[in-house]
Design goal:
Rossmann fold, single chain, alpha/beta, 6-stranded parallel beta sheet
């Protein structure tokens, strides 16, 4: 085994898409695997390290997806399963112990180590949960060792974050029996976005606000029956289930994309904490106005443009709501890998009536529908974007929407620009 580094909330329309039919497709898929979630997760938890147990293909994927990091050593690597491991010439668990020992000697700053399963490690039935328990016993209290699966056999790439956070939930300390209500924001957000939300919550009078994941391993938020949580990302179904098993209660809300989504998201917390309408308006009026002004710059190039979403990140429904309601784009089809109706209820209610929705993927059929519709813009994964560009169809990489800070009022204009940019690029290239 070899180590390789590497605007106010509007009343929801009664119609919407709450009970709209959904085309369910189960065919060939075109997605990244969950390992790619490490690219943003390793930047978020500042003293954690992600050790992928996989093949050289896994290592090459991560190096390609993350780009060349010249000025900083990344906090992830791949423990490559070699031929001698597969042939039984070496004990894979002994090899893993040796790699972990070398890693922790070299990186004494590590306080949390994730053993991340891959397709190869799952195929050979390597029990990483048992390995994590053994290693955690050995290295605690200095280093906590956890594991989760980033295998792409049955998952989409954003589920890597869900699996990682779900692995963290059992490690969260129990809240005090007499604890006052606290707010937990769930989902990896850029630090600048976190800081903006903290300021807004504080101005609303909500002071006890924690984030999962936390920035450091020793700052894990407590959880229990007094915990109210807001999902910042729509792809955290397993994490939400585990939090609720610990007694936490989800606050139903749209996701904080654009002025409308951010207002609705903040309003859910404000309602739970009995914040007056006057206070809420006073706190949110200025940033909401800034967001709406930023969006005006992109309204002309985007209004009336037709957009098609291939299923990839599970961000598709909130993005479709944002583009339709705040920038007047026309939704041709909104595909998503999984449609969690409970978590997306507020988004579904805000989508235009008659929106074509699809769940899952049959890539050939979806390509046929896309080619027939000839939309102005397609949101798709890298594997589909380049071929579609070659056919003259403008595209936006869905993975860029995960890497980029897009949540909150101050990022609304940046989010709109991500969709305007490919349209502008093609116009500039015209001769």
């Amino acid at each position: 085994m070899t180590l390789i580094a590497s605007q106010p909330v509007q009343t929801m329309p009664a119609e919407g898409c709450t009970d709209a039919p959904v085309l369910r497709e189960r065919g060939q898929r075109e997605v990244f695997c969950g390992l790619t979630g490490i690219i943003w997760m390793h930047r978020k938890i500042q003293d954690a390290f992600f050790l992928i147990v996989g093949s050289r293909t896994c290592a090459h994927l991560m190096q390609s997806a993350a780009g060349v990091m010249i000025f900083a050593e990344p906090r992830f690597a791949t423990a490559v399963i070699e031929e001698r491991d597969l042939a039984g010439m070496a004990d894979v668990n002994d090899e893993l112990d040796r790699v972990v020992s070398r890693l922790l000697e070299r990186r004494p700053d590590i306080r949390m180590l994730f053993l991340v399963g891959s397709c190869p490690s799952e195929v050979i039935k390597l029990d990483l949960s048992r390995a994590a328990a053994r290693l955690s016993t050995q290295y605690m209290p200095g280093v906590r060792v956890l594991n989760y699966s980033g295998s792409g056999i049955e998952t989409t790439f954003t589920e890597g974050e869900d699996a990682c956070l779900a692995a963290l939930v059992p490690e969260l300390p129990a809240e005090h029996a007499t604890a006052a209500p606290s707010l937990l924001v769930v989902g990896a957000l850029a630090d600048v976005v976190e800081d903006q939300f903290i300021r807004l919550f504080t101005q609303l009078g909500i002071d006890d606000v924690r984030f999962l994941p936390s920035r450091r391993a020793d700052e894990l938020p407590p959880v229990g029956p007094a915990t109210r949580y807001l999902l910042a990302q729509p792809f955290l179904a397993e994490t939400a289930r585990k939090l609720e098993s610990r007694g936490a209660t989800r606050l139903a809300a749209p996701f904080p994309l654009g002025a409308e989504g951010t207002t609705g998201w903040l309003q859910a917390a404000a309602t739970a904490w009995n914040v007056s309408a006057e206070t809420f308006e006073q706190v949110t009026a200025a940033p909401r106005k800034r967001a709406q002004q930023a969006l005006e710059h992109y309204r002309a190039p985007l209004t009336g443009k037709r957009i098609f979403f291939f299923p990839d990140s599970q961000l598709e429904l909130p993005l479709a709501r944002f583009l339709s309601r705040e920038l007047d784009m026309t939704l041709v089809e909104v595909g998503t890998p999984y449609l969690h109706r409970q978590h997306l209820a507020e988004e579904l209610a805000l989508l235009p009536t008659g929106t074509a929705l699809s769940e899952g993927q049959d890539v050939d059929r979806q390509l046929d529908r896309c080619r027939e519709a000839r939309p102005d813009l397609v949101v798709a994964g890298l594997g589909l974007a380049n071929p579609l560009e070659a056919e003259g169809i403008r595209t936006k990489w869905s993975i860029e929407l995960v890497f980029t800070p897009i949540q909150g009022y101050e990022q609304a204009g940046d989010l709109a620009e991500l969709f305007a940019r490919p349209l502008n690029r093609r116009d500039r290239l015209k001769v």
